[in-house]
Each structure stands twice: as structure tokens, then as C-alpha cells.
């Protein structure tokens, strides 16, 4: 081999090594941030896996938000999570919004009435449903069936209705997204 060919071969090896290292580091950085953001829940039976895609997990915080009309409320930051059914049969799940009683009990003076807190839920292939928290019976937002060996992605948004007069009311609400399977709570912290 001539010195020119050796030099080209050596340069090619260096370039390939640099590309490999860059790809490896990019993957490691992505994996680190993805793992920190996602909060996973696994049932004891390993039937369902639940992954919250936001760093807040299943915790809801409406502290200091401004009242919004529905069209703007539907564009607020979502709470996104995926439920994966590992069973070979259909799974029935209930998605609820529960009050975070630890936080709510500390500030009971002027909390916002639930009739002014709007909540929407969206699943793939379905229209977005909008409710107020006081319309939900026992906090149940959705009864859902997840097909065998499949996963379903849910998007929930909460906002304060523009119908409220905020002069004598502080705007705050603390809650949790709770997921039940066969009346057993599987996602709650």
C-alpha cells in the first residue's frame, strides 16, 4: 500500500470512529432525558403498564393559572400517558381525576369551585370530550376498554373556565390522575 492509500484508510477509520461515538452519545443523552421524564407504573399482575410522558407524572397543578375560554383551554399543556395491555384478553380501565387531599387541605380558604374547572380527554380516533369537574361522578372521566396486547394513548387537559369571577377566589386546584383496573388502583402516587 502506498502512503497515500494508508493515509486515506487511516482518515476513513477516524471519521467512522467519530460518527460512531457521536451516535452513541446522542442516544445516551436522549435515553437519559426520556427516562427522567417518563414515570412508569406496573401492576402487580403485570397486566397493564402505564407510562406518564410528562415530568409531573400523574400530578395535576392549576396553581396561578388564568381563566381561559374552551378554545384556548384545549391548547394548554397536556397530561399525556399510555396504557399498555399485556394480557391476551381485553382489559377494562377507569380513568379518574381525584383531589390531591394533602395539598388541598392546606389551602381550603378560597379554593376554586369545581364547576369552573374544565377537563378534556382525547384518545386516538375519538372526539375530544369536555366536562367540568363537578359533572364527573366520583371523579370518573372515562371507562375504557383496551384490546388484548395493545396500547392506548390518552391526553388530558385541565383549565379554569373564563366564566369565573376571580376577584374573591384564588385560582388553584391540585389533583391526581388515577387509573383503575377491575376496581384496583394501579396509578396513584
Give a quick precis of the structure.
This protein has 189 residues and is an alpha+beta fold. The chain is 24% helix and 36% strand.
What would the keywords be for this entry?
6-stranded antiparallel β-sheet, 189 residues, alpha+beta, elongated, 2 domains, 5-stranded antiparallel β-sheet, Immunoglobulin-like
Fill in the CATH topology of the largest domain. Answer: Immunoglobulin-like
Shape: elongated
Name of the CATH first level of the largest domain: Mainly Beta
The CATH fourth-level homologous superfamily of the largest domain? Golgi alpha-mannosidase II
Largest sheet: 6 strands, antiparallel
In the sheet with the most strands, the strands line up as 1-2-4-9-6-7
Any idea how many domains?
2
Poorly predicted ranges:
none
- In whole angstroms, the N-to-C terminal distance is 66 Å
**How large is the share of residues in beta strands?**
35-45%
The count of helical stretches stands at 3
Secondary structure: helix percent: 10-25%
Helices and strands, in order, run as: HEEEHEEHEEEEEE
CATH architecture of the largest domain: Sandwich
Give the rounded overall mean pLDDT: 82
The total of beta strands comes to: 11
Could you tell me the radius of gyration in angstroms?
Answer: 23 Å
Structural class by SSE content: alpha+beta
Protein architecture, described:
There is one protein chain. Helix content is 24%, strand content 36%. It is α+β, with helices and mostly antiparallel strands. The protein folds into 2 domains: 1-37; 38-187, Immunoglobulin-like. Strand 10 (174-181) and strand 11 form a beta hairpin. The longest helix has 35 residues, at 3-37. It is elongated and about 85 Å long. The model has no long low-confidence stretch (mean pLDDT 82).
